């Protein structure tokens, strides 16, 4: 019944911070169900239009309506198969990079179970705690360097890819997707030095049209 649902929501929200603590416990439980060897967290932002009149929210560009409307931005943190762990809502949105630094990464550091300990990290310089995946909005060599210091891996798009690579660099590779489907892709890889001197791996896919 709707009345019962409202009573439960009131109980959860009557004490400041109780809902957040409950959400944190649920997130820990859901994350623990993932394969400990594949701790990937996909971070994605979505604009949610506000239709009420109780507060004057700032305007955001809503792509599906091609208008600037009063809205909030929800940043969802999901497993790679789309299962959600938790969401961060920003009424005033400073962008994905700000949310990653201020809220998402600190929360993952405290809530993700099964992270390698100090001895494991010291023994293997390439070992990392977990991997965060996001789009090119969060591209920042300075942020990448900060995550490397925290031993957190980053997977994203290159915001300034530059010229196409030579065709001779690409070769057919079998890739297993999240849904276990096997596909063959034309892939190439280079070591790339970013503007701050940080070396990273860049992987490119060449499709049937020749687009990289």
Please explain how this structure is put together.
This protein has helices at residues 2-13, 18-32, 96-111, 118-123, 141-149; strands at residues 40-49, 59-62, 67-78, 84-90, 131-133, 153-155, 171-176, 182-193, 199-206. It has 212 residues and is an alpha+beta fold. A hairpin with a 5-residue loop joins β8 and β9. The protein is globular, with a radius of gyration of 20 Å. The termini are far apart. The mean pLDDT is 87.
Which stretches are poorly predicted, pLDDT < 50 over at least 5 residues? none
| Overall pLDDT level | 87
**What's the number of helices?**
5
User: Which of globular, elongated, flat, extended, rod-shaped describes the shape?
Assistant: globular
Largest pleated sheet? 6 strands, mixed
| Helical residue percent band | 25-40%
Please identify the structural class as seen in this structure: alpha+beta
Q: Element order, helices and strands?
A: HHEEEEHHEHEEEE
Keywords for this structure?
globular, six-stranded mixed β-sheet, alpha+beta, 212 residues, three-stranded antiparallel β-sheet, 5 helices
